[in-house]
Amino acid sequence: MKRTAIYPGTFDPITLGHVDVVMRGLKLFDHVVVGVAANPNKRPMFGLDRRLQMVRETFADEPAVTAVAFTGLLVDLAHEQRAHAILRGLRAASDFEYEFQMATMNRRLDEKIETAFVMAREDYTFVSSRFIREISGMGGDVSELVPAAVLPYLKAGEDRG
Ligand code: ADP
User: Which ligand 1 atom lies nearest to the CA of residue 11?
Assistant: First the structure.
C-alpha cells in the first residue's frame, strides 16, 4: 500500500528548511503532498497561486512530491488525497506548543490520521519564511536559504494576486 503524507503550511515563500522537511518525509512515506494553505488571516506576501507555483517549480523533478492548494480543513484534504499522515517540521522548542495543539486538534477531528514530526537540519533551524521576506525586502541575499525557483518571485516583490 502506498503511504502518503500531507505537508501543510503557508509557504510564503517555500524555503530550503521546508524542502529539507519534504526530503526527510520521503524517507518515511512514498508520496508527500505539499498542501499550500490559503491562510488569508496571515495576509501572505504572495497570492495562493504564486505560492503553489513556487512549490511546484521547486519539486518539478521529484515525482514523489506533488502540491495542492487548500482552503478548508486539513483533515478533509487528507481524506481527499488518501493520506495516512500529516507531516510537520520542528525547528526549536518554541515550535512545539503550537504544533502540539494543532496535532491534538487534528487528532480530535480524525483519530486515524497520525501527525509525524521531523527535525530541521541544523543549518536551517533559523530559516523561516518571515525572515526570508524581511531580509529579501531589505535587499539582503537569501539565495542560500530558498530554492532557486523562489528567487525571481522575491526579486519581483510582493504579489497578492
Ligand atoms: P505555518 O503557517 O503552518 O506555520 P509554514 O509554511 O511557516 O506554515 O511552516 C510549515 C511547517 O514547516 C511547520 O511545521 C514549520 O514548523 C515547518 N518549518 C518551517 N521552516 C522550517 C525549517 N527551517 N526547518 C524545519 N521545519 C520548518
Answer: 6
CA–CA distance, 8 with 35 (Å, rounded to integer): 4
Domain that holds residue 89: 4-156
Tens digit of each residue's pLDDT (9 = 90 or more) over 1-27: 899 999 999 999 999 999 999 999 999
CATH number for the domain spanning 28: value is 3.40.50.620
| Residue 42 falls in the annotated catalytic set | yes
Average pLDDT of 125-147?
Answer: 96
- Is residue 161 assigned to a domain? no
pTM for the full predicted model: 0.94
Catalytic residue of the set 88, 129, 133, 136: 129
Cell of 79: 481524506
56 CA distance to ligand 1 middle (Å): 17
CA distance 36 to 8: 6
What cell was used for 110? 480524525
